[in-house]
Amino acid sequence: MSTTAESARPRRLGAVLREGAQVTPLELFFDLVFVLALTQCTQLMADDPTWEGVAKAMLVLGVVWWAWVGYAWLTSVVDPEEGAVRLVILAATAAFLVVSLCVPEAFDADALVFALAYAAVRSLHILLFLVASRDQPSLRSSTLGLAASTALASGLLLAAAFTDGWVQGALWVLALLLDMGGPFFFGVEGWQLMPHHFAERHGLIIIIALGESIVAIGAGVEGDVDLGIVVAAVLGATVASAQWWLYFDIVALVAERRLANARPGREQNAVARDSFSYLHLPMVAGIVLVALGMKKTLGHVEDPLKAVPAVALLGGAAVYLLSHVAFRWRNVHRFSTQRLIAAVVAVALIPAALELPALATVAILAALLSALIVYETFRFAELRDRMRHQPAHAD
Fold first, then answer.
1. Other beta carbons within 10 Å of 108
2. Cα-based distances in Å from 100 to 127, 166, 235, 291
3. DSSP letter at 103?
């Protein structure tokens, strides 16, 4: 057998390090399961519109988010389309689908199935990293640290499946903290990534979350599509469009270039961990909360929102904006005063939302976000033009 053939075999059976920065079709296919998870989180809150229901949905969102984040890091190191990696990721997709299906009963009847499926998703992720790090001691060391925190978190979720009440909630909180805290406590020196690919994956997940808010608008319609529903749908689309604009017009460009220009290794990995893995979670959570508010608005446009949907709609918008404030500070150490003010105004409007028709509340939120966009477009016109038209840093 030739040397060429011998060297090709491990490439087919093992993991091949990633060479290009373009997101692959398999990664997009995997992300589709996350769409279902987001939909299920929104439905969980819609079915149980209480503070407890919101808390459960946010915990579930945090857990499924961290599972997705793990694969974003993984596919920024290995090529998901090569060798056995493709089959393992397809297996992880199936396990992630089971996780998503269990979301509505993740704290009740399906708690054990949820925990077992989640452990499978994370175990396959660790397995692929171990294969990819076979000849890279620093990556292997980081993977072993992550494996420890993952095992603890998965074990706690399994234990939580046999409890209920505050004990179950406490185990979930501890599991999420340990899972997400792994890369923080074990360091980031050994990880690798493709900056453009990593930023694009997170940008696409923001689009997916916004897509869920559009789905929530449609799912919230009850009965005939009358004038009130039409106006609410247009206003809901305006809110979703504003959220898209606030992220993609310039924020995403600045973040991607900051990541690409960071020194490879500790600095670049820390930026990726903080700006993307950590700070994108509250962004997605804010979008999901707004989606809940829109879903309840479309059900009864003429009635005031109840306390939980009102806080979800306006508080979710505030969380989204505050995440951007932290995102900008972490990336370029500049404070976005205007987005902080807009977040404070959104929160201050909650008492009014309990009295006004839901349609009016959505209209006010749409106007607030639109005004913020107009202000930033003119206030930062020169910076915006420079960032959107100068050549981007290549991977």
1. 13
2. 22, 23, 29, 18
3. G
Number of residues that make up the chain:
395
**Which amino acid does the sequence have at 253?**
L
Q: How confident is the model at residue 220 (pLDDT cuts 50, 70, 90)?
A: low
Is pTM beyond 0.70? Reply is: yes
Amino acid, res. 23: V
How far, in Å, CA of 285 to CA of 278, rounded? Answer: 12
Find the Cα–Cα–Cα–Cα dihedral 52, 56, 58, 62, rounded to 10°. Answer: 150
Cα separation, 86 vs 302, whole angstroms: 50
Whether the pLDDT of residue 179 is over 60: the answer is yes
d(CA 179, CA 62): 10
- Site of tokens 């106006």: 231
pLDDT at res. 309: 94
Count of beta carbons in the 10 Å neighbourhood of residue 351: 11
Tell me how far apart the alpha carbons of residues 377 and 388 are, in angstroms, rounded to a whole number.
12
Poorest-confidence range of 132-146, 172-186, 230-244, 314-328? 132-146
Task: Calculate helix-pair angle for 251-261, 227-248, nearest 10 degrees.
Answer: 30
What separation in angstroms does the CA of 241 have from each of 41, 299, 320? 21, 21, 13
d(CA 333, CA 327): 9
Q: What whole-number distance in Å separates Cα of residue 366 and Cα of residue 301?
A: 15
In angstroms and rounded to an integer, the radius of gyration of the C-alpha atoms of the chain is: 22
Residue 78, helix vs strand vs coil = strand
Measure the CA–CA gap between 159 and 204, rounded to whole angstroms.
Answer: 34
Q: Which residues pair with 78 in a beta bridge?
A: 17
